[in-house]
Specification:
688 residues; Rossmann fold; 6-stranded parallel beta sheet; 5-stranded mixed beta sheet; 37% helix; 15% strand; binds iron/sulfur cluster
Amino acid sequence: MTKKLLMGNEAMAHAALEAGVRVVAGYPGTPSSEIVETVAKLHAAGTAHDVHVEWSTNEKAALELLYGASLAGARGLFTCKQMGLNVASDALMSLNYVSVRGGLVLIVADDPGPISSQTEQDTRRFASFAKVPVLDPATPEQAFAMVKVAFDLSERFHTPVIVRPTTRVDHASAFFDVQEETHARPVPEEGFERNVSKWVIFPRRAYEAHGEINERLPQIAQAFATEEQFTAFNRMEREAGWGAASDVQPTFGIVAGGISAAYAREALRMVQARAQAAGLDVPPYRFMQIGTPYPFPEATFAAFAEGLGDVLVIEELDHVLEDSLTIWVGRTHASLNVHGKLTGEARDRGENDVDDIAARLERFLGLSGRLRLRRRELEAQGYAASPSEAAIEDLPVRPPVLCPGCPHRGAFYAVKQALQGTSAVMCGDIGCYTLGNAKPLDAIDTCLCMGAGITMAQGLAVADPGSAAIAYVGDSTFFASGMTGLANAAYNNHDITVMVLDNATTAMTGTQPHPGTGVTLMGQRNEPLSIEAVLAANGFKRVYHADPLDKDASIVAVKAAVEYEGPSAVIFESPCTQVSKPNAPVLVNPDVCTGCKKCITEIGCPAIGFDVNAEGMRSGNRGQSYVDPAQCVGCGLCLQVCPFKAITTLSAGDTVAFPAVEPEQGEAQKISTASDPHETPEEGGQDA
Ligand code: SF4
Ligand code: SF4
């Protein structure tokens, strides 16, 4: 064993390997991505033996692949973010009926906030919908332990098992004792065993299987309530309350799930300390974490609830535990009031935090009025309140933006320029390029889910034929969820234009490879899938290529594609700045800059700032733009946007000699870029 400081996601990867996982597959999505990457790193380091790990083209492909491995007797690990399970749900709903052979564990990371998602859906809800057990860790340590027991649970009850961490569990770090080397569990010698009546789902078999699922769920709930490996996740803790007699029967109960259990423990300590400082008694209470929310461990909760009159439920996302408690109260006719999201006593959305929970606990325990009075007394005596809240409110808002030099900026700018004066609806999609909606680019009108831009544009083309229907899709999303939409467009001859923003990686989630890169997660090099060939195979008869950092050529390509009646596409090709070498930064010539701000108001590169105090020959006292060389990657887009040629490239050692130039009318000067010349319609735009 060796001691390591690991993030929750890394720890779960280690746990799966120690549990003998043989096949690991998923699709990247924050906050889950590091799990698969950690397995790949350990495999590449030669310490994780006999494991196959891959990024699949999407979540459905990953889960179906893993189910095949499970039927051959291998243990499999699936990972995705919460919305990825929507994509994989078709497979999940059915495979639970067919039942698993090798243990199959799904780590589905939820994103309260949401911090980087379109929804705040709760995977515990999905688990009960699919009738699949779910484990809900409060800490990285619990996540590590839960992944290990999940494999045994899966094989014992022939069920897939979900482990559902949330962002803070995924990304918090702790020390772990982990095995230096791991070996996948051997698969049975006989491999897959043919059994049509078992592995082939037919209506009659589905009917029987549904009964089997209904029978095993109470057995699993019983295991959660009685077996030590699970009861450790459903711990009851009794507190006498500071200053209260220890033999007083508590009437208050606090139930928490997931990371909220960790927050609640800290908040309770905070409440105790505040009460102690104010000379107040805290009434006795019981606290319980429920780490196995579905199937609900009723027997454990029944013991916890004995003698209690009120229970406050603290959880993130949906009121899953609160529902279970309410159902239990209704069925048992218990004299217990359940408080939580449904009663307005807990946050109904977003992340919980310690301060908020502490305030709610003070109210719930009847302390807030007296604590407030005491605080006022202290303030009157000259004790200052905590400055932290005021300081936090003063922080500036920093919305997410495309990186300096991001090639998507050029693509959005070209599309907007090409469509000037044209009515158009621009359908976005999921990825960095969703940020094209921000001003000044303002180039996205809709965003729904992976791949939806292509198909939504088709609906708009049908219902609003007077507007050009534009769809943006990134290269990774193109392969993950875009291809069926392409086929639909060609099959029904929808008049749309798809802008494929090909930056040669899955940028948003950490530059993972995909089928278009030709490199697998295990380092194998295969023939990359051609986006152009896929478009052609799906019936797109007009496909143009453009370098998004070549403004004029890009505008020409977009105009040609939009003018074509029928499905057409522009493939914008330029690598993400995270996977390419930067060029020398550019420089604003103070003798030429007029302070017109066009470089800022047109493209919004964060490397360009404006100095209101700068004065120059042509700007007078209007102020001038400047480029932050630490951020600029020399993409060259701003050079093409400045109408006065005030921005220029600068290499190390260059002497700056800026020509005095007059502004051009309309179009900016075209410059050469590091990329190859691009195929434009004039240069032979492809008639695929
Ligand atoms: S060249 Fe201009 S647009 Fe590109 S990164 Fe530098 S400042 Fe931004
Ligand atoms: S667009 Fe050119 S002239 Fe105008 S502020 Fe920017 S650098 Fe200066």
